[in-house]
Every structure is written in C-alpha cells, then in structure tokens.
C-alpha cells in the first residue's frame, strides 16, 4: 500500500546518525517518490568536514538503492529545534527520522535531546532510533511492537510499519498487562488467565488489522500477552525470547506530557535495549 | 524481505568496511571513543546498584512475613505498655521467624547471579585489534563496532564479527548452537539471515583452527551471545505452584485472623474494655489464627525432600523446585544422553542396493574408507573425537583393523561441514587414491553417479531415479528403526591431480561429483534400559513427554515409538521439524500440540523457548532439560529447568533449578514421584497444623463473648505452634510415597492447598472437637475447684493455672490422634506402622512428654503459667486421643462409602 509521504532525515553527523540513515534509505524505498530530504543544521558540534563525508556516503549508498537524497545544510537560527521546525513543514504526511543517541552531557538517549522535543511537539510524525547493531544495515527482519492496549488499536503505528515492512520477516505484537509487584506475586491462576486472555484478544485484533493492511507483503505476525510488574523489563525479555532485531515503541498519547519522556522507563529501555530501538509518534 | 543484499552477511566482502564505517587500517582513537559512548562497553554487565537491596526488600513483601512482623510489632508495643508479661519473648520469636524466612528466600535468589559468572568465561580478556594501522592487544570490553580484529586458533571470539579474510578458519559454535562440530567460516557474501551465515564469527564461540580477520558489527548484549546472557539474567522465573498456593493460603488465613482480631478489638472498645486488654486479645486472635510454624516446616519439608531426591541423582538447587517437579504436566526432554546412553555404536553396515548386511571383509573395507573421512585421536584405551567418528574407529578395531595404518595413508582431510552435512578425505587404499565422503544421504545424493552393487559380485549400477529411490528406501528403513544412518561414497582421484593445494574448498568442490555410493552405516545410540518403564510411569501419572532433538525426524520418531512417547502406530508426520517450527506462530504450535505432536526433530536449542512458551500458553507446568549454553534461557523460562550434571555446561547448570547427576530421564520421573509426595505431605501437615488452630481460637471467642476466664494465653498457643507441632509436622513431611501417588494425574492448579474441604475438616470438625474437649476439661477443673460462672480469676491463681494446664495438655494429647489420622486420607493411619517413621514416633513422644510436663514440671509450670491437676483428670485428657482419632476414622469410613456409592 503506497501512501503519499515526505521523509526527512535529521542528520547530526554522528556515527548513530550514519547508522540511522540506513533506516531512512530503506524506508524511502517504500514511499512513492523514493526520496528523502537530509537536513543538517550547522550547529558545529561535529566538524563540517566529517558531516560532509557522512552526507556523501549516505548519498552514495542511497544511489545504489535507487533513492534520491535532497541534502540540505541549514544555518543555525537561534537553536537546532527551531531551525528544524522551520525546515520541516508540519503535517500528517511528513515523517522525520532522527537518532536517539547519548548526548555530550550524558543525560541519556532521549531526555534533553532534539529528538525528544520533536516527539513532544507533535508537529509531524517522528521516528527516533537508537541503533546498536549496525550490521543490520536498516533491515531488522524481526520486529517487536509492544502495545499498551490503546483502543485506537494500531492506527498510529501502521504508517511506520508500512514503511518498514519490506525489510521485516516477522512481527511480534506484545501486550504487557501491567500489575503492581504485590498483585503480580499473589494473583491467582484463574485471574491471571483472565487477564492474559483479555490481552490476547486485543493482540488478535491487532494481528488481524496488520494482516489486512500488509496483505501485499509476506509477513509472519505473531503475538503474546504477558503479565508483568515491570513492563519495561518484560519488553526486553520478550524481545530476546523471540529474537527481535528491533523494538518499535509508541510514545503513548495518554501519558505523554513530560512524565513519559522525563520518566526513567524510556531511558531505561533505550539504555538496556538488546536490539535497535525506535520510538514513534504520529501527529 | 526483498532480495537485494540486506544485512552485513549478505554484502560483498569489499563493501564491509564502507557499511560498518571502518577501513582496513582500523578505526581512529576518536572513532573508538565515540562508538564506546554510544554503544557502551563490550560486556554483559548491567550495573544495577539497587538490585541486591531490592531483592532483599522484596522478601519482606510476603504476606506471611508482613503478618509476622506486624504481630511482632504489636508484641513489642504491648511489652512497652505492660512489661513483665513475656510479650518481649514472643515479639523476638515472631521477628526471628519472619527474618529467617525472608533471608532464606533472599539467599536462594542471590545464587542466580552465578549463571552470569559462568557466561563471562566465554569472552576473552584481550583481543588483537587493528587500529590506526597498528595491530595491538586491547581489552575485549573496549572493542566497538567497526573494529578490525584478528582471530587465531584457540581465540575466544569477543564480538559478532563479519569475516573478511580467512585461512582455513574454523570455529566451534557450540555455545550458541549446541553443535560441537567445527564450522568452516568464509569471507564471501552469503544469502542467509545474519544469524545463520557462515561469514559471521559469533561472540562467545571459539576458533578451533586457522586464522582470519573480520570487522566487528555488534558487541556486548547486542551480540547473539549477549541475548542468551541477557535472558539468563533477566528472565524471572514465575512463582512455583507451591509459592502460589502458599500465598493463597496465607491470604485466606490473614484475612480470617485480621478480621477476627480487628472485630474483637472493636467489640472490646464498644463494651468498654481497657485498650491494653483489647490489644492483647486482638493479638491473641491473630496469633491463634496464624500457624507460625507452618512456613518453617514447609521449608524443612522441602529441604528433606531435596535430600531424598539427591539420593535419586536429582540435585535440587532451589527448594521450591522439589514441589514444582511434582506438579509438572509436561517434560520436554533431550534425546541424546537423557533418553539414550550417548554411546554411539555401529549396529549394521549395509549394501545400499539391497539393504543386506555386508560381509566382514567388505564391511572392514568400508569402515577403512569411513575412517579417512573421520577425525579421531587414539588416547589411552579409547578414542577422542566426534562420537560418530569414534564409533567408526571402535568398530574398525573390533574387526581387527589397524587405525594407525589407515591414518598414515590419509592424504587430505576435509572437516565436517554443518551446512553441507558431510565430511571427506583423500586416502590411498589398495594402491588406489580415493576421495571419500561421509555424511547424510540427502547431502550426498546429488553428487552420486552410481550405486555400488554388492550382491551378485562387486560392481555398481548407474544412479538412475529408480536406483537412487531404492537406496533411499534402504536408508529410510534403517532410520525408521531408530538408527542414525550415514551414507558413504567415494570416487578415484584422477591421476596427477594435485591434492596438496591450499584452496581446500576449491579442491573439495572439484572432487565432489561422480561419486559411487558405497554403503550405509547404521549407528545406534542404545536407549537407556530404564527409560521405557519411566515413560510408562509418566503416562499413568498423566504426564506428557515431549522429545526435542537435532536428529533426523525418522530417527526421532523411531526412538519416540520405542520408548512409548508416541503410539507405535503413529505416523512420521506427528513430528515437527525445526524448519516447520520456525514458520509456526505460537497459536499454531499450540494447535499442533493439542493435536498430539510430541516429537520435535532437527531443532535448534533456540527453538526450545518457543516450545516452552506454547506449552505455558496451554496452562501446563513445564519441565525442560538442557545442557548447552544456549539452553540457558529455556531452562530459566520453564517452570522447572533441569540441567545435565555430566554433559551440562556450567551456564546450563547455573540457570537450572535441578541438576540431573546421572543425565538419566528415569531420575526425573523418580524426582516427580518425590515431588508429588512432598506436596501430599505438605497438605497432610497443613491439615494437621490447622486442626490445632480450632482449640486455640475457641477460648478467645468464649472469653470475649462470655464472662469466663481465658483458657489459653498467647505463650501457650506459641508453645504449640512453634514447639510441639513442629516435629510431628516434619514427621508427616517425611512420609513415604503413597502407592497411588503416580497413579493420579497432576493436581489441578486452580485447586489450592487450602481448599474449603480442608478448612472445614480442620476448623469445624477436628479443630472444634479438640476445642470442645479441651474446654470441657478446662471448665471441669475450674468448676470442681469452686469457680462460679461469671466470676473473675486472678492470673496467678493455682486453680486457673491448673485449668489452663489441662486445656493445653489435652490439646497436645489430642494432636496425637490427629497426627496418626493424617497419615492416610482414606485409611486409619495406624496401618502405616508407628515405628515406620521415626520422626512421627518422636513427635508422639514429644507430645506425651510435654502434655505431662505442662502439668507436672515446675519449670514448665513457670514458663507456661500452668499448674498440676489430679492424674485422673490428666487421663481424661488421654481419652481425647481416642475421641479425635475415632471420630476422624468414622468420617473416613462414611466418606469412603459415599464415594463408593
């Protein structure tokens, strides 16, 4: 299914930026005009020469995949985020791919970063990626989608999935049914079963939704619902259990205001992820 | 996925540097720093400063512990308000029990860390890395993606690496795949997913031979080995069935005791009793309701069960696993070494055309050829090498062959290639130079030109469709009888062909065509003699067995049929292969298993996890066996992880709860029988202990509701719960298995330890009986001593002390009748023989001695605030034994009749 999309890569010249660009190239291969815009804001954090080398390498690699790259070096106006917001038009068809990387002050992979602000501002669709296995070259193969049980189902995630789908073999949907540690410990077998069944029926609906939308792509979609008192840890455990190469986690709408981003869970996940990790947010 | 080159394994060698942002001279220092800051160190360490503290704190969230702590706190408060009542002793006793329980659980959890230590040994300390044009040894944890590393024989591989240069580089991937046969690595692109590619050297594996160079693309937890390490660390085992049932019981008892205690506290406040008296009563009711000695007795019973299991070669690392093993619905077992003896022996060598056994001379000739494609080293009276090669060598020697003579004639050896599933060699035999190939028939078949015909004289028939189909029929026939079948083929090496050329792969490729199929070697791994009986026992006990093996499906099915895992009539398609498993969703696998699939062939250790997940989704309690490093996650994910003591790796052993000292399946079944017995015994002593709660609660109810003295004080209650009841409970915990314990299906997990029937029987039948008889004697002593209803008695009044003494003494004596009756559910209990269980006998003696001492020992009188009664009244207390035992026996008879009707 081809949908009109404009792809932007916010490239900072870092090694993570180079690795993230692979995802941009792969995703661009699945949008109608097979192109993306590379934006570099001249913030002088990375020497310009190194940035130029990086951009040239990305352009060369894109050419081998038949992807057109429109590279733009933009002068910094006030700060990086404002410059980016000025360059990327708002809208539901615009997608910005950026990196989640450790920043010099070492606050974390997301908190305090440009990516976090982009996700929070919700002006366009954002996908922030931390790449830990550059050998995948943007083709994770096995993808895990942890879902929070949102009544809207998979709608927010679908456009991102459709762009990644050609490089995916298997999708694992995970619904973690959160319990407090005390309840987790004392929950009866019957009550646990009821909760898991409830989670599985949600997962089944999502699987059907994905299969409907990806009928053209040969994908194996499987799912699980599990009980956990530490949902973040459970995501990592399940990701390893199914040998996921990438975790794609939605920035939930419910808890978004600062608590979600500044809270430790996302950072905790990003710092301990066993595979590439992406956080998406739809406008 | 699209067909373009995708991941790094699928990229041509010359593009690897570009894709990994590296260069042949290696990375610059600043690049290493940048990558280290982003990716982190190449290690499996997760720094979690609070982990130990958190784990310790978690032990105190146990309901029972909380209850004990609250009770202790009340005691300390009561002591402060009103010292000299002995409340401080009680407080310390309760605190001690709570701390001991928590500490014990903490120590068990802390031991899980050892698996990580075992995993760390798989990574090297130093690695030869090329950076800024210089080869240098750097600490392995400083290796980053893009680093160019050099691998040589004996090296441990530090990170997942794309090989770009190789000179006969062979690696042992056993830690990841469980397959100990070395794999030859290549530098060319391979069109396979990364984890299956032969151009990737994986972290945690070892270089067996050759040298090579590669570019690192994943480090630490991001490697394949890192995933195993992460799972071995992060998977939290779900609560054991016993833990769940205990917690349910504790919850029920807590609710009962707290609501009663609080209810009476409020009642006391309303009727205007002093606060101190109300507090004592609230605490008294709580203490009377909580079987303080039960949890320590659980632990003791499990510990004793684990000792008995150890005698059956089942070493238990986590006490809860004793009972969990008894609750299993499914055992997922490896084949080799567990169900079979892991002693490969050649049982037949056959003609590929007719399938008939070869004559001795011909067989020896064939074995000599097979030896040329084998790698064995003679050692003191045995051979070292791959078990299959060793079997060939042993048979050859048995037939009078000279191994050294053959090995001297081997010109070239081609090691076993896991992907190609064959090995080879060039040997000079009888003046001919032959190229020999040994391996799976499917792997050799495409290279065949002819098939040897032995019957009717030597010769060969062209490899037509019919001839090959005939050979395949022969192979299948032997595989179906449980033999592992190896095909042997050869061809003369053309004269003048150089056999010493360096390009081994090229030479092999040049020779691998126009082969003559010489014969099939049937190899048997004998089934352990005790296994069929153990499997039959499992069937009777309602336990399913799932066979998981890397073997050929037909071999797996044949073994499964032989030992009774599947019916003899079952078709081969009742088996699932690893490839089929890969394509199945969990729900699909559940369907397959519900339809009766019990055999998994050609599987990898990784796939064990999927099988465990499916079985757990079916609400089964799963026991999983394993020995390799890569089995560790599945061992942790299963309800009971069982590692092999002989063949097992340290990692598997540290990840499992149970270690099988003799690697024998039959020992698991013996362990299950013991586990079931432990649960039955726990149920027996829970019932026994709860009976004494009745006579402990009743006096408080009477005291609050009527103007009568309190028949039992808190110290006296604790003397029962933490004193005299402990040894008899332990005695019940030591009872031998009932004959029918393995004749019943696994117990229903939804039915807890504390069933309504057990509560009714404990509190409302036997407990009430004990309470009524002890209170009868209490009031008998009071009334015969001149007490009148409604009058108050001072606490130190001799009459009151004597009355309390006989009440306590009667409860102790009646517990003897209760104890004997608990030994059998349906029979009297006397028929077990009082002398058969020494702890029960000791428990009875203790009850008798204490019942006497309570009344007549001045020391005990002082401690327990009791006094003596005339002997005839004491003897009336003895009547209680007959009363409780007789009433219970009558109940058993009536229940038996009703059940029969």
Can you walk me through this structure?
The complex is a heterodimer of chains A (283) and B (901). With 283 residues, chain A is α/β, with parallel strands linked by helices. In chain A, 40% of the residues lie in helices and 27% in strands. In chain A, strands 3-2-1-4-5-10-9-6-7-8 form a 10-stranded mixed beta sheet, with helices on both faces. In chain A, α8 runs parallel beside α10 (264-272). The longest helix of chain A has 25 residues, at 189-213. With 901 residues, chain B is α/β, with parallel strands linked by helices. In chain B, 50% of the residues lie in helices and 16% in strands. At the A-B interface, α1, α6, α7, β8 and α8 of A face α2, α8 and α9 of B.
How many beta-strand elements of chain A?
10
Q: Unreliable runs of chain A, pLDDT <50, ≥5 residues?
A: 255-262
Q: Supply Rg of chain B.
A: 36 Å
Number of DSSP strand runs of chain B = 25
| Sheet/helix structural class of chain B | alpha/beta
Sheet with most strands of chain B? 8 strands, mixed
**Overall average residue pLDDT of chain A:** 86
Unreliable residue stretches of chain B: 1-5
Identify the overall geometry of chain B: elongated
Series of secondary-structure elements of chain A, N-terminal to C-terminal: EHEHEHEHEEHEHHEHEHHE
Oligomer type: heterodimer
Distance between the termini of chain B: 66 Å
Task: Describe this protein with a few key phrases.
heterodimer, A: 283 residues, alpha/beta, ten-stranded mixed beta sheet, 10 helices, 10 strands, B: 901 residues, eight-stranded mixed beta sheet, 34 helices
Which SSEs are present, and which pair or pack?
The complex is a heterodimer of chains A (283) and B (901).
Chain A: E1 6-10, H1 15-28, E2 35-42, H2 48-64, E3 68-75, H3 80-87, E4 91-99, H4 114-121, E5 124-130, E6 141-147, H5 158-164, E7 168-178, H6 181-186, H7 189-213, E8 220-228, H8 231-241, E9 246-250, H9 256-262, H10 264-272, E10 276-281
Parallel strand pairs in A: 1-2, 1-4, 2-3, 4-5, 6-7, 6-9, 7-8, 9-10
Antiparallel strand pairs in A: 5-10
Helix pairs in contact in A: 1-2, 8-10
Chain B: H1 16-19, H2 29-39, H3 51-59, H4 63-81, H5 87-110, H6 114-120, E1 126-131, E2 134-139, E3 148-151, E4 160-172, H7 174-177, E5 183-184, E6 200-201, E7 206-218, H8 224-234, H9 241-271, H10 275-289, H11 294-311, E8 314-316, H12 320-327, E9 330-334, E10 345-350, H13 360-372, E11 376-379, E12 382-385, H14 387-398, H15 403-409, E13 410-417, E14 422-429, E15 432-439, H16 441-444, E16 448-452, E17 460-462, H17 465-480, E18 484-492, H18 504-511, E19 515-524, H19 531-540, E20 544-548, H20 553-563, E21 575-577, H21 578-583, H22 586-594, E22 599-601, H23 607-617, E23 622-626, H24 632-637, E24 640-644, H25 650-655, E25 658-660, H26 665-691, H27 693-705, H28 714-724, H29 726-733, H30 756-784, H31 798-821, H32 838-856, H33 858-864, H34 871-900
Parallel strand pairs in B: 9-20, 9-23, 16-19, 20-22, 21-22, 23-24, 24-25
Antiparallel strand pairs in B: 1-2, 1-3, 3-7, 4-5, 4-6, 4-7, 8-25, 10-19, 11-12, 13-14, 14-15, 15-18, 16-17, 18-19
Helix pairs in contact in B: 3-5, 4-5, 4-10, 9-10, 10-27, 11-26, 11-29, 12-26, 13-14, 19-26, 22-23, 26-29, 26-30, 27-30, 29-32, 30-31, 30-34, 31-32, 31-34, 32-33
């Amino acid at each position: 299914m081809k949908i009109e999309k404009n792809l932007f890569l916010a490239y900072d010249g870092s090694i993570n930026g180079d690795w993230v660009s692979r995802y941009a190239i792969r995703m661009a291969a699945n949008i109608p005009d097979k192109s993306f815009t590379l934006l570099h804001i001249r913030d002088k954090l990375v020497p310009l020469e190194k940035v130029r080398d990086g951009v040239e390498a990305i352009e060369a690699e894109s050419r081998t995949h038949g992807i057109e790259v429109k590279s733009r070096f933009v002068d910094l106006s006030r700060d990086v985020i404002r410059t980016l917001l000025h360059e990327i038009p708002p809208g539901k068809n615009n997608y910005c791919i950026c990196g989640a990387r450790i920043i010099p002050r070492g606050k974390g992979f997301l908190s305090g970063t440009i990516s976090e602000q982009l996700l929070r501002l919700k002006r366009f669709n954002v996908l922030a990626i931390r790449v830990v296995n550059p050998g995948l070259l943007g083709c994770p193969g096995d993808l895990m989608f942890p879902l929070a049980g949102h009544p809207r189902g998979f709608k927010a995630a679908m456009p991102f999935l459709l762009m990644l789908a050609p490089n995916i073999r298997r999708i694992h949907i995970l619904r973690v049914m959160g319990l407090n540690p005390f309840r987790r410990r004392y929950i009866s077998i019957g009550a646990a079963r009821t909760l898991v069944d409830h989670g599985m029926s949600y997962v089944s609906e999502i699987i059907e939704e994905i299969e409907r939308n990806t009928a053209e792509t040969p994908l194996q979609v499987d799912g699980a619902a599990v009980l956990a008192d530490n949902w973040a840890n459970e995501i990592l455990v399940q990701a390893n259990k199914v040998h996921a190469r990438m975790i794609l986690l939605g920035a939930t709408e419910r808890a978004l205001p600062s608590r979600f981003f500044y809270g430790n869970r996302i950072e905790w996940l990003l710092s301990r992820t066993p595979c590439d990790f992406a956080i998406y947010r739809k406008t | 996925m699209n067909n373009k080159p995708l991941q790094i394994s699928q990229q041509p060698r010359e593009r690897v540097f570009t894709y990994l942002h590296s260069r042949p001279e290696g990375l610059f220092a600043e690049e290493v720093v940048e990558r280290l800051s982003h990716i982190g160190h190449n290690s499996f360490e997760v720094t979690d400063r609070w982990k130990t503290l958190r784990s310790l704190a978690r032990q105190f969230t146990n309901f029972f512990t909380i209850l004990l702590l609250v009770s202790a706190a009340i005691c300390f408060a009561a002591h402060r308000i009103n010292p000299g009542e002995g409340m401080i002793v009680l407080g310390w006793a309760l605190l001690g029990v709570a701390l001991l329980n928590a500490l014990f659980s903490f120590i068990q959890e802390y031991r899980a860390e050892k698996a990580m230590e075992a995993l760390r040994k798989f990574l090297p300390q130093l690695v030869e890395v090329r950076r800024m044009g210089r080869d240098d040894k750097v600490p392995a944890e400083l290796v980053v993606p893009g680093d160019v590393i050099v691998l040589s024989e004996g090296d441990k591989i530090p990170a997942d690496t794309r090989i770009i240069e190789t000179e006969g580089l062979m690696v042992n991937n056993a830690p990841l795949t469980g397959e100990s046969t070395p794999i030859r690595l290549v530098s060319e692109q391979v069109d396979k997913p990364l984890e299956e590619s032969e151009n990737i050297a994986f972290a945690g594996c070892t270089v067996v031979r050759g040298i090579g160079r590669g570019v690192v693309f994943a480090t630490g937890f991001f490697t394949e080995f890192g995933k195993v390490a992460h799972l071995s660390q992060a998977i939290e085992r779900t609560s054991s069935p016993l833990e769940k049932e205990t917690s349910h019981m504790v919850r029920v008892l807590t609710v009962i005791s707290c609501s009663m205690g609080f209810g009476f506290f409020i009642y006391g406040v309303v009727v205007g009793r002093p606060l101190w008296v109300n507090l004592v009563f609230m605490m008294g009711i709580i203490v009377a309701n909580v079987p303080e000695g039960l949890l320590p007795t659980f632990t003791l019973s499990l510990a004793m069960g684990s000792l008995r299991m150890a005698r059956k070669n089942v070493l238990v690392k986590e006490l809860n696993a004793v009972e969990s093993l008894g609750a299993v619905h499914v055992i997922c077992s490896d084949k080799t070494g567990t169900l079979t003896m892991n002693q490969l022996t050649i049982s037949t060598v056959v003609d590929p055309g007719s399938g008939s056994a070869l004559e001795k001379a011909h067989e020896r000739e064939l074995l000599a050829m097979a030896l040329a494609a084998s790698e064995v080293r003679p050692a003191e009276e045995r051979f070292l090498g791959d078990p299959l090669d060793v079997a060939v060598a042993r048979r050859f020697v048995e037939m009078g062959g000279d191994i050294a003579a053959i090995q001297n004639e081997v010109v070239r050896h081609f090691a076993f290639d896991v992907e190609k599933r064959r090995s080879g060699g060039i040997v000079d035999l009888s003046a001919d130079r032959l190229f020999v190939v040994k391996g799976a028939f499917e792997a050799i078949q495409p290279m065949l030109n002819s098939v040897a015909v032995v019957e009717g004289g030597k010769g060969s028939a062209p490899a037509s469709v019919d001839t090959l189909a005939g050979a395949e029929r022969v192979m299948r026939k032997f595989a179906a009888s449980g033999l592992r079948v190896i095909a042997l083929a050869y061809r003369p090496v053309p004269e003048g062909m150089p056999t010493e050329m360096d390009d081994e792969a090229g030479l092999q490729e040049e020779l691998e065509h126009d082969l003559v199929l010489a014969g099939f070697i049937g190899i048997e791994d004998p089934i352990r003699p005790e296994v069929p009986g153990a499997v039959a026992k499992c069937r009777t006990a309602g336990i399913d067995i799932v066979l998981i093996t890397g073997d050929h499906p037909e071999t797996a099915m044949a073994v499964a049929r032989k030992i009774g895992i599947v019916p003899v009539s079952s078709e081969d398609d009742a088996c699932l292969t690893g490839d089929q498993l890969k394509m199945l969703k969990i729900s699909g696998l559940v369907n397959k298993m519900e339809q009766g699939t019990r055999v998994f062939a050609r599987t990898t250790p990784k796939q064990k996890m999927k099988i465990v997940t499916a079985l757990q989704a079916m609400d089964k309690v799963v026991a999983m066996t394993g020995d390799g490093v890569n089995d560790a996650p599945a061992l942790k994910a299963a309800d009971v992880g069982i590692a092999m003591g002989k063949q097992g790796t340290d990692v598997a052993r540290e990840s499992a709860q149970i270690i099988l000292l003799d690697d024998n399946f039959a020992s698991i079944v013996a362990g299950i029988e013991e586990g079931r017995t432990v649960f039955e015994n726990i149920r027996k002593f829970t019932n026994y202990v709860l009976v004494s709660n009745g006579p402990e609660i009743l006096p408080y109810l009477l005291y609050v509701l009527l103007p009568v003295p309190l028949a039992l004080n808190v110290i006296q209650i604790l003397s029962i719960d933490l004193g005299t009841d402990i040894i008899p409970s332990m005695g019940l915990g030591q009872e031998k298995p009932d004959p029918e314990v393995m004749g019943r299906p696994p117990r229903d997990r939804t039915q807890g330890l504390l069933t309504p029937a057990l509560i009714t029987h404990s509190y409302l039948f036997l407990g009430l009986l004990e309470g009524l008889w002890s209170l009868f004697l209490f009031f008998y002593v009071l009334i015969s001593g001149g007490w009148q209803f409604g009058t108050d008695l001072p606490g130190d009044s001799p009459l009151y002390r004597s009355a309390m003494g006989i009440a306590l003494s009667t409860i102790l004596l009646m517990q003897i009748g209760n104890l004997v009756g608990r030994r059998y559910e349906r029979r009297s209990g006397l028929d077990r023989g009082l002398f058969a269980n020494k702890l029960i006998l000791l428990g009875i003696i203790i009850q008798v001695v204490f019942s006497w001492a309570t009344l007549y020992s001045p020391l005990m009188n002082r401690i327990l605030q009791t006094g003596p009664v005339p002997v005839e009244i004491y003897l009336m207390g003895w009547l209680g034994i007959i009363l409780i035992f007789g009433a219970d026996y009558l109940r058993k008879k009536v229940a038996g009749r009703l059940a029969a009707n």
